[in-house]
Design a protein that fits this description.
Layout: E1 2-3, H1 35-48, E2 79-80, E3 88-90, E4 108-109, E5 123-128, E6 134-137, H2 138-143, E7 148-155, H3 161-167, E8 180-189, H4 190-196, E9 207-212, E10 222-226, H5 227-231, E11 238-243, E12 246-247, E13 257-259, E14 272-278, H6 285-288, H7 300-306, E15 322-327, E16 333-335, E17 343-351, E18 358-364, E19 372-373, E20 375-377, E21 392-399, H8 400-405, E22 408-415, E23 438-447, E24 452-458, H9 470-474, H10 526-541, E25 545-548, H11 549-553, E26 556-557, E27 560-565, E28 568-571, H12 583-587, H13 595-601, H14 604-611, E29 614-619, H15 635-642, H16 644-647, E30 680-691, E31 694-700, E32 715-722, E33 725-731, E34 742-748, H17 763-770, E35 776-783, E36 786-790, E37 793-796, E38 799-802, E39 805-811, H18 815-826, E40 835-844, H19 851-860, E41 864-872, E42 880-881, H20 886-892, E43 900-905, H21 908-921, E44 929-931
Parallel strand pairs: 1-20, 5-14, 25-29, 39-40, 39-43, 40-41, 41-42, 43-44
Antiparallel strand pairs: 2-3, 3-4, 5-6, 7-8, 8-11, 9-10, 9-14, 11-12, 11-13, 15-17, 16-24, 17-21, 18-19, 18-22, 20-21, 22-23, 23-24, 26-27, 27-28, 28-29, 30-31, 30-35, 31-34, 32-33, 32-35, 36-37, 37-38
Helix pairs in contact: 10-14, 20-21
Length: 932
Amino acid sequence: MTSKPSPLVNEPTQPLANGTLPNDTLRPPPVDLFPEETARVREMLQKQFPDALQHPVEAVDSRDRKTPDVWVPRHPDLVRLTGRHPFNCEPPLRYLKQDVTAAELHYVRNHGAVPQLVWESHRIEVCGLLKRAATFTMAQLLVLGPLRTVPVTLVCAGNRRKEMNQVKQTIGFNWGAGGVSTSLWTGVPLANVLRHCGVECGKRARFVSCTGDDNPSGGPYGTSMPLAMAMDPYGDVLLAVAQNGKPLLPDHGFPVRLLVPGWIGGRMVKWLSRIEVTESESTNHYHYFDNRIMPPHVDKDKADAERWWYRPEYLFNELNINSAVIAPDHDEVLPLTGRKQERYTVQGYAYSGGGRQVTRVEITFDGGHTWEMCEVRHPFAPNWAGRCWAWSKFRFEVDVLRLFCATEFAVRAWDCSNNTQPYALIWNVFGMGNNCCFRVKIHPTHDAVHGAFGLRFEHPTVPGSNTGGWMARDGPKMSGGIPPRPHAAAAVEKATVAPAVPDKAVAAPKPPTHADPGKTVHGSNIYQQALRNQVNQAAAMDGPRKIRMEEVEKHRSEDDVWIVVKQRVYDCTHYLNDHPGGVAAIMMNAGADCTEDFEAIHSERAWNLLAGHYIGDLVDGDEPPEPHLDYSNSTAKLLREQLPTDAHVPSQANGGVVGDDDDDDDDDDAPITLDPRKYLSVPLIDKVILSPNSCRFRFGLPSPRHRLGLPVGNHLFVRARIDGAVVMRAYTPTTGDEVRGFFDLVIKVYRANEHPKFPAGGKLSQHLDRLSVGDQVDIKGPLGHFAYVGAGAYVLNGQRGVVRRFGFMCGGTGITPAYQVMQAILRERHQPPVEMWLVYANNGEEDILLREELEAWAEAHENVHVWHTLVSPPNGWKYGVGFIDEGMVREHLPPPGDDVLVGLCGPPIMIEKACVPNLEKAGYRREQYFSF
């Protein structure tokens, strides 16, 4: 049963007259690029597929900090498959219910860092077997239209790979069933560009090789396709410049990418920079060593030894037929209410390659004895030549009682060439093209949410390093098999409740296991688990040391690197230069728990290597560490033990005093509250609302005589248990260590549903906002690598220094460490006073924290200079507008010199894209600025 499809997005365009365009037509398009076509697409999306436009993303994900992609905004819901970097992800299956996938939720396959390209300066070289080679700007490329918009489903060749990895590890990471997305792609037909350059399809000109402007480990990504396919007027091969009516996102190939409908995503080169017409296939590294489906008996060693990589018959180009279940989702629970005639709708997607349309989808509830027809819907009609580039959706309504009687169900699709999906999984070394029947297990369970009995559904796997799925539990023995000889498919209308049938799937033949599977990446399976058990047993025999996280955190330099994986501590110092991913890949996790990243991107061989660097087990703060691991070399201890006596500066008795306290009344023997080894609970004793989205929270210390014990410029952790999970953030108090009995935190509250980028809001800030007087939170510290001592003296990364002028560049809530340092300087009697310059960036005027205090200081003290800049200023705004730029640095910070130090604190993208580059343009050296 097939529903009527939506109309075509637009009809295919006929080839250009005479096959060429005169050079004088290559003139720039309007400033907004291609307004008519994209406006038409957005209007159509708004009417028919509005969800595709409702997921804007502007913020940089915190997981991209310390990676080359720190500038790329990404949706936080995307499931990361390879740790932090490179970025490879898929959307949760629930988002694939929509016929058009939002660009921000489209799956991403990157081999390395995203290149930072500029529309105006980007060039595309077209060369090879042509009458005239040419290099096009983006503006010139658009004139080679007319632009065409085509609905295309993109699929990663590794979609559903994790199922193979549960049988035997492939050399690919763990894609779930979400490596597929559909968008409306707008671009210039590749055939138009080639005709303009005088291509002649003949005996020599047979292929089109395309190369991107990225730079992964194997060099710029490239591959090729037959020239005849590129020239096919109904093949819809495009140089795409827009997705869903908007310019491409960086992850999807901005400013231009190749689009080859009906083929795997791996042939659609992103960040396109070179097109070459050749006599033979591409010689690019990735054309040979990626995107192939080899026979099951070929493992990596055999492929290397016998040069299987170079056999063209194993290239994976056209998509094979596939389908997967979207609803029910993995671990979804269906409550059984006992109502008669209750039904559930199974939903999913199906696609095929080469323009072949899906003709039917079937479902079985009895292990393949009988198959029944699902309702199939085609969101987009085929093009004029009958080629279908977009997925189909299916649904099947089933009685809940029938689900209760079944142990699993499975689906399979058919296309117009009568291709269908195998019941059993067929393994290959790349883990590509997995299209076995998608099987969902059904388990009776207690539904805690509804307080009733229910059915829990279990998919074969869950993507990435996440645990779950029935294949992780049952492994190869449940990977599928040849089902019983099926009966004729039954119509949905005649479906009846069938009795429960035991699972009759037999075990598929296990692919050959090699003693050394070679370079395998990304994924946890039964073989890795066994290997990790061996590592654990060996560690136990050695009598492991007990190490606290505080100790691990001190080992984060290139001369001394520790990491934590699965509660075990490893010293990787001597492996830095040998690491195939480079030094940076380890240093971004130095001194931290990197279990998720390590599990996501490392192989069995890597686990073997890791075992040789094991030094002990991680323990929590309640267990005693070994004596020689005591907290010893931190900035905090240097300040406490070496600096208090000779660096103490009494406060000023008149105009320079901030507050009413006098340091002469300070008792140096006041007890210290903070302990870097353990958390302490402190009560909320007061709360002052400063603005609609900011508050001052005052927390009490153990006694009126206690001081916090936090060096100026350091911060502390605040921890709370929220919805059963521990949430922890670092904050800098606005009160100094001279205050007794309490400390203040000025915090911006990020409430739920106030910003589309963060629908859940900030967990900890909202928790603090809900606190009542007397409620408690946990604190621990101090921590930080910078501390201000007094009279211009400071300690940075354990090294002392003295300056006469401080500069600060802050954004949003990053003002608090600078505020604390400025406050401490204003309490000094030192002459001449240390001078301070502050450039403070925010989105709007209402976001400026501590504004009254800052501007009062600037008015009262000649050594304080404050400059604000806003992205969205109000009328009459007297300060700066926009992001921090070189002009602001030169005008509102002190000139660079040996007696100047600039502290930075704010969003990572502000630091990396605004602060650091403009400081360097203004002449600052790297040692003259730091991040708090």
